[in-house]
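User: Predict the complex with adenosine monophosphate.
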Amino acid sequence: MDDCIFCKIASGEIPADTVYEDDAVVAFRDLNPQAPTHVLVIPKRHIATLNDLQPEDEPVLGRMYGAARRIAEQEGFADTGYRTVVNCNEAGGQTVFHIHLHLLGGRMMHWPPG
Ligand code: AMP
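Assistant: Here is the predicted structure with adenosine monophosphate placed in the model:
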């Protein structure tokens, strides 16, 4: 997608503080962190929202969660705990329409979320 900021990060056109990359996903630090560690894990291929996920795309979700788990280990909070969140559409709080997994760690999380 030409006008998608996360596609531009995935292609390297826009710089990001990348913490992990493989053939399917890229992970980078959120510009507006909500926790001591706040990383976004995205598929390299453009998928706008969870609602747009086709059955053939579903393996990439596993790749995103696998990356999140590895980053949690790298960041040192895998055992103490962390949160992963995918927002979908306006009422879910989604503002960037390229699917992304938020990985938040380094502080106590609260429930219910806001
Ligand atoms: P969401 O509200 O779930 O769509 O999350 C979008 C997230 O992307 C927000 O937490 C923003 O702070 C973050 N964000 C937007 N632009 C960038 C960027 N260029 N680099 C890193 N994070 C970004």
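Helices lie at 5-11, 58-75, 89-92.
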